[in-house]
Amino acid sequence: MLKRAWVRGLVVLAVLASIGVGGSGIAVAGDVSKPVVFAPRAPSPIVIDGELDDWVFAKANAILLDEQAQLTPGYDDPAKWLDWTDLSAIVYVAYDDEYLYVAYDVWDDRVIQNFSGQYIYNGDGPELYLDFNPAAEATTYNENTWQFGFTPGTEAAAPAWVLYGQVAGRVLDSSAVKVAAKRDEYGYVLEAAISLAALGVSIQPGAVIGFDVAVNDVDSDAATETENQIILSGSADGWQNPSVFVPLVFYGDSTVVKAFLKSAVQQ
């Protein structure tokens, strides 16, 4: 298992702040500076079991959510967020021919979920945002944009997922997403594998999508809504506006990463 302290000490973050993206190299949305995330191809299918043993290959591209500045506007009351031991996460992303994989290694002193279905955002659990056509610079959800909610369930005993309904009439079969979670001494681990066929997409090295990840948190058994949320983009508008997402670059080897960085620096 990837130890949190070890990853926090040694991870080489591929969330590169203040890199302007766009231009001739790889088409992405807009010309403003945003963080950039890189997702490697998985060397073999990842077992969705709530364990991180399969994710060692992705540690250099881990996304670290652990600062007060990353609290989502509107959920950024310092009195409700003590420090990173109250709520933080290390997030891993990978892909292969069949699945988009994501793993959340969440530090959360209490794991509580009193809601289900479309309302799980009111309890503990991660979120995932995707835009498979960021070059269109869409400001509303369409057939290319997706928001998934996940929850480990209270004490990580009932993992579940939901596709939020910004696009009317769009549904996914229950088999489209695999999810598993496990409680540990720090919080919980949640893994998910999303079928690319179910999304109607394929992924090739060098592809760029719009992307965001967040983790919701409550600390009270009586909580009726999210008390805190920590999010990569720093925006509270991702549920309705995909233009706030950050670029995620898929790669098979370092050639793609180097080409992307060279293109970005030249802009």
What integer value in Å does the Rg equal? 17 Å
Helix content: under 10%
- Name the structural class: mainly beta
Residue stretches low in confidence (pLDDT < 50, at least 5 long) are 5-32
Largest sheet: 7 strands, mixed
Question: Which fold name fills CATH's third level, the topology?
Answer: Immunoglobulin-like
CATH architecture descriptor name: Sandwich
Write the H/E string, N to C: HEEEEEEEEEEEHEEEH
Number of helices: 3
For the record, the count of structural domains works out to: 1
Task: Give the DSSP E fraction (strand runs of 2 or more residues).
Answer: 25-35%
End-to-end separation in angstroms reads 40 Å
Can you tell me the overall shape?
A: globular
Q: Output the CATH class name.
A: Mainly Beta
In round numbers, the mean pLDDT is 85
Number of strands: 14
